[in-house]
């Protein structure tokens, strides 16, 4: 008897005018996606919204309801445009309170940095009932409430918070992947890709074309939670490519 | 009498397992955002979904209804995982047809590249009623139907399609921005930022902290569609920072 392994799903909500204006190149999507993969959690969807309460509330409620976990990045700093805590509290229908441990952390952190002023104290505000996510980079902690995880927007600080959560969330089997590369144009091997995927249940093949050194080619990424199936599918793909007179480079080109 | 200028809004839907797996760092959000800004169109929201018909259909219908324009990137190539055209047609309730001009473009393009096979012909499929977006990079065109614009996922090809659309879409006043930088910690000038924004109607101030050369600092980005208001707000911010004994660097640090 085989049972289908449970798939754990997460969504990411990126909050910030700076991403939507094009000023800042987002780096958190790829970082969170890779980290989730290692935890055995699938990143199912991402949204980017402005520093706008209504937009954040709508996205939080849509995404937390249909995913096991919701992560947010951005908007938890000390300035007027940092409205994530208030918006998430509104979405959850809870009050915003000062978290005593967060306050203590900030008092220690700012003791030698000019003291805890009103703006800095904003970073101790959390939706009522929340726990803290340690931040070893810059004092102000991240926040967990229910299945919602509020993290900083600055990628190096986000990374530290993800690190603090490593191994702490329940997940399933990690999604494994292997790449087979070829200098073939993907449009010349499209049938092979479709048929190989169809013949290998539990495997998905993505085709990622490129144009490099004056030649077209593609990397074919096979994904599965089952290492043996993944191996079989990649082997079939390599054999299939070579049968078509195409080279096949395990690991990708 | 003053009238509030109409704001033109767009959404971007990024389609692709490779973004959600963390394999590929998205570059289209920033590129599309910057391009839209020049067209006088505000990027209001972004979603990233998997190569999954139901997810694409849901996002297309949500986003096209509440924005003036919807752009998609990814999933319009020749392989089995390229399902954007079918999903958008489903969302719009129209058939998928072969576009004769797209077919002719592909015939010419592949004449010296092995000919037009079945997989390549997939790239001539469009939702019924669509027009083409020229692609000077690689043959296969983008697709416009109603207020939905389907573009390639490979950033250099996306760029060529955006270029072809430059000046072709109705927009409003472009959102202007100016940056004032300071080596002040944002938490030390948070009150000034809030008050300056409040005193300058039509301007929004974003605060983007950084840690560099062992010191904290922040860039304050002021945005407005009105050049004179933008100028006034920046000037007030510079004066305010200096009154607090902080340096202020027009243009940012």
Helicity range of chain A: 25-40%
What is the CATH T-level topology of the largest domain in chain A? Answer: Molybdenum Cofactor Biosythetic Enzyme, Chain A
Main interface by residue count: A-B, 70 and 71 residues
Principal-axis shape of chain A equals elongated
State the order of secondary-structure elements of chain A, H for helix, E for strand. EHHEHEHEHHEEEEHEHEEHE
Low-confidence stretches of chain A: none
In CATH, what is the homologous superfamily of the largest domain in chain A? MoaB/Mog-like domain
Q: How many β-strand stretches of chain A?
A: 12
Q: What fraction of residues of chain A sit in β-strands?
A: 25-35%
Placed side by side, the strands forming the largest sheet of chain A appear as: 2-1-3-8-7-6
CATH architecture field of the largest domain in chain A: 3-Layer(aba) Sandwich
Q: Based on helices, strands and strand pairing, what is the structural class of chain A?
A: alpha/beta
Mean pLDDT of chain A: 94
The number of distinct helices of chain A, counting runs of at least 4 residues, comes to 9
Give a quick account of the main beta sheet of chain A: strands, pairing sense, barrel closure. Answer: 6 strands, mixed
Distance between the termini of chain A: 39 Å
CATH uppermost class of the largest domain in chain A: Alpha Beta
Q: In terms of quaternary structure, what is this?
A: homodimer
Rg over CA atoms of chain A: 22 Å
Number of domains of chain A: 2
